[in-house]
Structure formats: C-alpha cells, structure tokens
Write a structure and sequence with these properties.
By secondary structure, the chain is an alpha/beta fold. It contains twelve helices and eleven strands. The strands form three sheets. A seven-stranded parallel beta sheet has the order 3-2-1-4-5-6-10, sandwiched between helices. It has a two-stranded parallel sheet with strand order 7-9. A two-stranded parallel ribbon has the order 8-11.
Length: about 290
C-alpha cells in the first residue's frame, strides 16, 4: 500500500508525515512537494519524494501514479486560486486511479458562512463526484493560529478580540495531523466526514488558559471590529491581512466554528491534547 501526502514540507503536512512514519514502513510512504530539495531529509529516511505542483497538473499525474491512499492538504492563497489548485489535484487523483482520498477541510463545510469555506465546499463536491472513497477531515482551528496573539500577551499586551462570546474548537496542529495519519493508515474510513475540534471555548476562556500557563493574569480587551482592525494595524499586521483577521473574528462571533464534536478524540484514540499543554509548547518555542 502506497500512501502519499501533499504539501509534506508545510506546517501540517510535515507533522502528518512524521505521524505516518511512526505507523507504517517508510517504503510505503510518498510525498508530493514543489521543491524536492526541501524534502531531502525525508528521502534520506526512505520516503519516496516526488515533485508535484498544484499549478502544474502534469506533475500531479506523475506524483500520484501508483498511489493507493492520498491526503490532499489544502493550499494557501485566495479562494479562486485555491479552488483551481484543489480541483487540479482531485482530477489528477482520478486519472491516476487513486483508491482513497482524505482531504483537510473546514468546519461544517457544506453549510458554513465562513469566507474561507467556499474552497472546501467546492473541493468536497469535486471529490464526491469522482466516486473515489473519501474522508473529509474538517479541522476547526489550530491553536498555532494564535501565535501572534500569544506573542502580544508575552510582550505585556491584553488579549484583544472582537469575537465576543463566540466559541472556537482550538486544538494543536499535531493532534489534527495525528488524526489524519490515523485515517490514512487505518481502515473503515471510506466515505466519512469528521468534524475535528477541541473543546469549544471563548476568547475569555483562552485568556484564562494563558493566565494559567504564564502564571499571571492575562487581561482580555473586548472591542468592536473597527477598533480591532485599528489595533491590528497598529501592531504591525500587514494592511491586506487586517480585513482577513477581522472577518475571522466576526465569523467566530457569529458562531461559525461552534460545532460540538468528539470526532478528534475518537480518531486519536485518546483525549485531545490539553490546550494548556499546547500553549505551553508554543510559549517555550517563542522564548527559546
């Protein structure tokens, strides 16, 4: 059985590969990357490193050849570009005769109003149309997305949010990666949809967790979207990124990530890593 992971040198893909290497022989594992030199360490460990560029469908045909199980890790960029890239990958998988596709999607992808979701909705629909057995891994939110916030808190700033009492299912990227690896290496996951999430908490709860980790009170500053945008701009966030951050805060406030599910724990076969532990690792990394 040959398992292939796309985006294997990225933040999530690299962790999926490490989890797979602990579960399957290296000769059963392949990766698709744009720059094969960046995956030289994986090649030295016996992983089949292949060139694959989502903007070059012909390269994907070669990368996906002979693959039994495929993980398509969602790309970065604007929605139009991502949809084009994802559909190219799905089409290549179909041409290559891939037997199973796992895809890193987003919470409640078929119904959510989150501005990022059209990409995932289109990709899920394209995968379903192929008739290839699939598993949609709908990741809620990475706690690592809050590194900028944590850096600000470490510098003495309050935790600033315009998300109000909206709840988020933060979990570590490592847990999401392990869940994906377990699906790829396991059995019985054909035509499944997993809503993967940590415990649902508010930003006020997040501030409390940070307070525990840092052993000091972390104040929270609840503001409106306009004020939030001004604070982010003042903190040096690039101008094009500010509206994205505001849209995320607004979406959280509207409850788009508030979907209760124990699927992540089920796939892990253990409790989700405590948020305090995940944040402690982030803090230690920032301080080192």
């Amino acid at each position: 059985m040959k398992i292939l992971v796309t985006g294997a040198t990225g933040q999530l893909g690299s962790k999926v590969v490490e989890a797979l290497l602990a579960a399957v022989p290296a000769e059963n594992l392949a990766v698709s990357v744009r720059d094969t030199e960046k995956a030289s360490d994986l090649r030295s460990r016996g992983v089949d490193v292949r060139h694959g560029d989502f903007d070059d469908p012909a390269s994907l045909d070669k990368a996906f050849a002979g693959v039994d199980r495929l993980l398509i890790v969602s790309t970065q960029g604007d929605n139009e570009t991502r949809i084009r890239q994802h559909l190219a990958a799905v089409s290549a998988a179909e041409r290559a005769g891939v037997g199973f596709i796992a895809y890193t999607s987003a919470t409640n992808a078929q119904e959510s109003s989150l501005f990022l979701v059209p990409v995932h909705r289109a990709t899920e629909e394209a995968i379903r149309k192929t008739g290839i057995p699939y598993s949609f891994l709908r990741n809620n939110w990475y706690i690592e997305n809050e590194i900028g916030t944590i850096q600000g808190v470490l510098a003495g700033a309050p935790l600033v949010t315009s998300a109000g009492a909206g709840k988020v299912g933060w979990a570590s990227r490592g847990d999401y990666a392990q869940a994906a690896a377990n699906v790829l290496a396991g059995n019985g996951h054909e035509n499944t949809v997993y809503e993967l999430s940590g415990a649902l908490i508010t930003h006020e709860d997040l501030a409390a967790v940070l307070s525990t980790v840092l052993d000091r009170e972390v104040p929270i500053q609840q503001v409106d979207d306009e004020t939030y945008a001004k604070i982010m701009a003042g903190a040096g966030v690039p101008e094009p990124v500010v509206p994205i951050l505001v849209a995320i805060q607004s979406a959280i406030r509207d409850g788009v990530l508030e979907l209760e599910s124990s699927d992540l724990q089920t796939l892990l076969g253990r409790p989700v890593t405590p948020l305090s532990k995940a944040i402690e690792e982030i803090v230690n990394g920032l301080k080192s």
